[in-house]
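Subject: Sanity check before I submit

Could someone independently write out the structure tokens for this chain? I want to compare against mine line by line before I put it in a report. The sequence has 337 residues.
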Amino acid sequence: MLLAATAPPDELTEMGRSFWEVWQTPISIGIILVVAVVVRIVLHFVIRRVVDQIVTGIKRKQNVTETRALTVSPLAAVRVVQRTRTLGSVLNNVVTVLVAAVALVLVLGLLDVNVVTVLSAAGVVGAGLAFGAQNIVKDVLNGIFMIAEDQLGVGDVVDVGPATGVVENVGIRVTQIRGVHGVLWFVRNGEILRVGNMSQGWSRVVVDVAVPYAVDVDAVQSALLRAATDMAASPKWQQVVIDEPEAWGLQSVAEEHLVLRIVAKSKPADRDNVDRELRRRFKAVADELGIQLPSMESVVLTGLEGAASIGGAKPPRTAPTPLATPADRAPRKGRRR
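---
Independent answer below. Compare away.
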């Protein structure tokens, strides 16, 4: 210290220059690492703040304080919360990887390492890992698209091919589905080729009522339709049944009975309740008319029958095709042919 204090200015400058030349690389690497950590913290804070703002705004609209309490609210709120948090987790991971990659390239440049060679080797290794773990990459990418496109969410009743049931969790790689017998299925997102979601939009209840052959078909059908309409207009069910019930007429004629079909639109979550209530009321109608019903069952339409009946009993309205009359086809006077 005494020598440093009594040394000439030129010697102090030379000592500082020597110190900087020795410690320049470690100090630069330390600065890069500190900046990378700070950038990562700031970006994670911004992402977390945006996610919290979205989730808090939904909770404020639903007048709840906990996320689990949103299950009593419309499913859209729960779906937005889950999608936002999942995508926020993905963004956090992407930010971490990008910041670490940039910091690593800058550090390698300071250490006089050929970055192009390292990146080429890393690319070869990455290609090998991607080929070996292509199923994992496929699962992750498919999971991201499923969440971003809102194909399914927690609480939805879905049919994904390998499993059918209620969705309990949608992850980036695996979706958890609870079956009707309580079995929890872990389905890889890459194996989901199609999603049949029975909880979005509306559902249709289709009830086929078998009646004796000798009954008056029009009278029985009118009584069944009136019972379904009264149910839809009742205070308990008017918020559940979306549209007026319809009678789709005589579906089949057997040797001993006829089959009449009554349908009704309902909210997806209340489909089974509407189905059971309709059958109960149809049984009461049959008792009033003194008819013994051979059978009564719910039907799931498939194939062309299901596709053609999506619009209901009313046929689709299309604009008429204009037909040219002979007068229109005849050439007018004064016009060249």
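---
OP: Matches mine. For the report I'm noting this point. The two ends are 113 Å apart (CA to CA).
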